[in-house]
């Protein structure tokens, strides 16, 4: 389309009543919405964040996927996005730049005189419209919460010096308490007590001034926290490869740990093959997937009532037979249900697949870029709600790359 044709189309659209035009604009994919704000002053004024626009956009927004490439030692500073509702329809997944992580300074590497390195921020998880990053392999272990749509972020204070000296961080997670409308950060730590290693936990309520200890964990030091995790309705759920026979969870409102039994049908074979098991969310319910690769199908189990083992239902049996290929080994992580009813899943972190329940068919999207490396990924719902309003704090920071500052300010204001 030529520039003249684009101008004519914009001119004809601006003849529409403002309320109709806003209804059209808020339904655009996120990147297209950003671009539309640069088309004309009418589009810019209609999409300038205010209470009406934010509410209207929130009621129409669909989940998108965020990807951070690189490993925990050298993560990318650029967060990229894919918009499944659009990309699946076009059968052309394209990763688009979304957010440039702020620079948080450098740290001195112990035992290496005058040697400094960047403190890298690693994508950990998402809650609602917010993303959580942790600075790994740094002496202060700081982290930040950001809204990538508004380019705003808040740095979480480091744990108290006494806590940091007495323990070592194993993992940190962002959560949300619906009852109190508070965001919180959970820290899992380990400390040596004589001949034993104890696992503890601390919580930081965003907007408060300090961390505090909570109940001790009924677990040992050999549990993994980073492989299979899912946040749902105020709780974080984990599934460990080897040590746990149940799903472990933390309730951010009550600030307590607990466990949920796997489906009663799970026997020794499933427990021995937990590397083929994952957690996710389907239809607002906790979901467990199990890849029975010998039989070439993935079972999707949904818990209809929280904490009730008897409410597990095998919702779908997904045939994974691939023409001219062997069994699909490894995890299938449920990501989201698309508007057309298809279930989007991530296969062993390097390919996206879609399952159509009506046709009972599975197709591998072929996201070849993922196969070059194993990215960290999250599904989240974009929002224009200001970060300080979401976190209930007085001040936040905004980071815009100097090179693109002028263009992004126009788009994101």
Automatic annotation (TrEMBL):
It comes from the Eukaryota. Residues 10-56 form the F-box domain. SUPFAM superfamilies: F-box domain (SSF81383). InterPro entries: F-box-assoc_dom_typ3 (IPR013187), F-box-assoc_interact_dom (IPR017451), F-box-like_dom_sf (IPR036047), F-box_dom (IPR001810), SCF_F-box_component (IPR050796). PANTHER family: BNACNNG10540D PROTEIN, F-BOX PROTEIN CPR30-LIKE. NCBIfam families: F_box_assoc_1 (TIGR01640). This is F-box domain-containing protein. It comes from Rehmannia glutinosa (Chinese foxglove).
């Amino acid at each position: 389309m030529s520039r003249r044709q684009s101008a004519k189309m914009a001119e004809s659209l601006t003849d529409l009543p403002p309320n109709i035009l806003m209804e059209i604009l808020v339904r655009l994919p996120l990147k297209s919405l950003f671009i539309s704000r640069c088309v004309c002053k009418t589009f810019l004024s209609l999409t300038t964040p205010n209470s009406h626009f934010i509410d209207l956009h929130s009621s129409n927004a669909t989940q998108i996927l965020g990807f951070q490439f690189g490993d925990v030692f050298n993560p990318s500073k650029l967060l990229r996005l894919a918009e499944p509702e659009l990309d699946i329809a076009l059968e052309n997944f394209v990763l688009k730049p979304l957010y440039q992580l702020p620079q948080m300074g450098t740290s001195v590497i112990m035992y290496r005189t005058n040697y400094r390195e960047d403190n890298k921020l690693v994508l950990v998880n998402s809650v609602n419209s917010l993303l959580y990053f942790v600075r790994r392999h740094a002496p202060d272990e700081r982290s930040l919460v950001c809204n990538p749509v508004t380019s705003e972020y808040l740095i979480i204070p480091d744990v108290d010096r006494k806590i940091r000296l007495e323990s070592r961080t194993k993992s940190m997670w962002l959560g949300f308490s619906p009852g109190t409308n508070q965001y919180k950060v959970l820290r899992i730590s380990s400390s040596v007590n004589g001949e034993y290693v104890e696992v503890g936990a601390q919580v930081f309520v965003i907007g408060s001034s300090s961390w505090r200890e909570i109940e001790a964990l009924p677990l040992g030091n050999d549990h993994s926290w980073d492989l299979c995790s899912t946040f749902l309705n105020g709780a974080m759920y984990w599934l460990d490869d080897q040590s746990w026979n149940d799903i472990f969870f933390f309730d951010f409102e009550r600030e307590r740990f607990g466990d949920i039994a796997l489906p009663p049908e799970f026997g020794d074979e499933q427990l021995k093959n937990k590397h083929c098991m994952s957690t996710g969310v389907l239809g607002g319910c906790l979901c467990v997937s199990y890849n029975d690769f010998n039989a070439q199908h993935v079972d999707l189990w949904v818990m209809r009532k929280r904490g009730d083992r008897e409410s597990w239902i095998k919702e779908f049996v997904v045939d994974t037979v691939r023409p001219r290929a062997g069994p699909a080994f490894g995890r299938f992580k449920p990501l989201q249900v698309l508007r057309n009813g298809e279930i989007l899943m991530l296969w062993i972190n390097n390919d996206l697949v879609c399952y159509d329940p009506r046709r009972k068919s599975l197709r591998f999207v072929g996201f070849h870029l993922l196969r070059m490396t194993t990215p960290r990924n999250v599904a989240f719902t974009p929002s224009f709600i200001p970060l300080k309003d979401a976190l209930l704090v007085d001040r936040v920071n905004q980071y815009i790359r100097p090179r693109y500052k002028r263009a992004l300010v126009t788009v994101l204001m």
